[in-house]
Design goal:
- The protein has 292 residues and is of the alpha+beta class.
- It folds into 2 domains: 139 residues, no CATH class; 72 residues.
- Helices cover 35% and strands 29% of the residues.
- The protein has 9 helices and 11 strands.
- It is globular and about 75 Å long.
- The N and C termini lie far apart (57 Å).
- The N terminus is likely disordered.
Amino acid sequence: MLGQSISTGYLQRYRDMTADEARSVVRGLDGAEIVPLYKESGGEYSPLENIHGLRNTATGKVTMSVSGRYHPLTHEEGFVPVLDAIEHAGIDRNMKMWVGDHRDSAELYILFPDLVFNEDRDGGTMMYGLRFMNRYDVKTSFKGQVFCWRLACANGSTHGELGELSISAYHVESHIQNLEGEISGFITEMLSSVTYLDSIIDTAIESQIEFPDYTSLAQTLGEITGSARRGVAVADMLPLETNRWQVYNAITEHASHAPKMSWKTRDRLLDAAERRVLMADSLIPVMIATAE
């Protein structure tokens, strides 16, 4: 697959990086450690049994209490194996990276301009990317997903999450000790998924939908997006005769371009677009009852 030129806009936050440069950035993120917690009785303090604190080593603040089973996974320990696996797979020569550093939580986004699919078809060329998240303030902490960036977007910011290509781990020793191998397998699965993704898109393109009128279109999209207002905004982008791939693209475009949208709302819309449109067997229009 040929490398693509990438539009600017949202991509301004990304930087060209080698694997070594990316590791250096990741190693600068906050760490975490287990510390004892104490109870007070009669003016004396004694450590709590089987309950500890998770402390951010950079801020010195305890982010939450954890049980004895909890085993901290630092941002570095989670993200460096990702970069190692990418380098081992030989796809690190042309990658763009952005790190979202929120102290107790961090996100690692990586784009691969040389890994593209859906060229010369409806919706335009799409580029592979990876998103990993790690947190010190919740117990379901490490997650990774493949996403796709549609280059036809004005700012390149349409993310389509692919639920079949994901990885997650609790911060417990049994999960963490196998994490490096699972990350390596995850990267390998991403590289072998092009045929699978093309077949999903082909099916969605062939899945024709005819809405009887604009009201049906807007209400159907309102149910999918969970908002009548967003349903109208997406409906304004679509004709009455369409297909699931076009509906998916309209929802993800709205999720990427709508002003003042929180990342939680954006992720919810992307998830709905994937589960209820792209990966669905069909999309049935809402039928509006008419008075006789």
